[in-house]
Amino acid sequence: MGGLMSVTPDPAPPHIRTFHPRRGRMGARHADALDTAWPRYGLTVADDDDTAIRPAELFGRTAPVVLEIGFGMGDATAQMAAADPGRDYLAIEVHTPGVANLLALVAERGLGNVRVARGDALVLLGRLAPDSLDAVHVFFPDPWPKARHHKRRLVQEAHLAAIAGRLRPGGTLHCATDWPHYAEAMRAALDAQPLLRGGVVPRPAARPVTKFERRGVAAGRPITDLVYHRTGTTDAAD
């Protein structure tokens, strides 16, 4: 896949995974998407690959880039990208059925501003240049509700420096969750990151309602959106 060059990588990400691989069945449509759309739209993110990802070459143009972490089945990603053709969407997921579904949506709708990555988002972040992203979306990540699993959560202080550092000054980190305790932990970690300023906001109209959000609402859980912006320096004020 285009858009790669050799660089000195960031320190290796922690061995603790922020995701739990799940199996899923794929029908003919998904299998066909992996065969036909992957060569054009797909990107493998391997743990042992230390080459940089250059979005301008990956997408074939220079445009603001949105990193979508953990897109599930990809319906919301496809909807946002279709409504936002001026930005490029680099979407990463670990579950093959979701990857295949988004590939199918991208091919069917001709979404040239989407690339579908499969692998660990923390590894991907290490291969992107500082200040290279216009926005990062983390919508309904695995809450890892048991206390002994909290170390596996994606949105925590240990990972936020890498995320914030890839945002351009003024860039946006938008997180959403339907787990109140995770929302509290997210806010505490985000508030503690010196490169970020923001807080809880009403659901932005541009964020589609996702399958996980509907499940949370059906279970009676409140939805929390947190939007933070990258400051210019670690000492920058609001």
Automatic annotation (TrEMBL):
Protein EC: 2.1.1.33
Database matches in Gene3D superfamilies: Vaccinia Virus protein VP39 (3.40.50.150)
Positions of transmembrane segments: none
Molecular function as annotated in GO: tRNA (guanine(46)-N7)-methyltransferase activity
Keyword flag Transferase: yes
Pathway(s): tRNA modification; N(7)-methylguanine-tRNA biosynthesis
Binding-site positions, S-adenosyl-L-methionine: 68, 93, 120, 142
GO CC terms in record: tRNA methyltransferase complex
Pfam families given in the database record: Methyltransf_4
Superkingdom as given in the UniProt entry: Bacteria
Reactions catalysed: guanosine(46) in tRNA + S-adenosyl-L-methionine = N(7)-methylguanosine(46) in tRNA + S-adenosyl-L-homocysteine
The keyword Nucleus appears for this protein: no
Keywords tagged on the record: Methyltransferase, S-adenosyl-L-methionine, Transferase, tRNA processing
Residues that bind substrate: 146, 178, 210-213
Family as reported in the entry's similarity comment: Belongs to the class I-like SAM-binding methyltransferase superfamily. TrmB family.
Its biological purpose: Catalyzes the formation of N(7)-methylguanine at position 46 (m7G46) in tRNA.
Protein name per UniProt: tRNA (guanine-N(7)-)-methyltransferase
